[in-house]
Specification:
Blueprint lengths: L3 H20 L6 H20 L7 H19 L2
Length: 77
């Protein structure tokens, strides 16, 4: 339980640059797909290695989506 907040922050921060890159790539291209899905594996590895319970997965998803969206907003100029 003590790793939940840092893990949420990590999920958000991992997704920021990928959201930025996603916003600059062609929609539905291979790069676009990778920029959305590759950070998922990083967050899964972090969750498993920190022994965080599966009940926190919805919060991790929300945090990751927030990072993607904010990174995308930063990338659109």
């Amino acid at each position: 339980m003590s790793f939940v907040v840092p893990l949420l922050i990590l999920a958000f921060l991992i997704n920021l640059p990928f959201g930025f890159l996603r916003s600059r790539s062609k929609k539905y291209s291979f790069k676009w797909f990778v920029y959305i899905h590759f950070p998922v594996f990083l967050v899964i590895i972090a969750r498993i290695s920190s022994h965080t319970d599966y009940r926190f997965i919805p919060l991790l998803i929300l945090s990751a989506v927030a990072g993607q969206l904010l990174g995308g907003k930063i990338g659109v100029t």
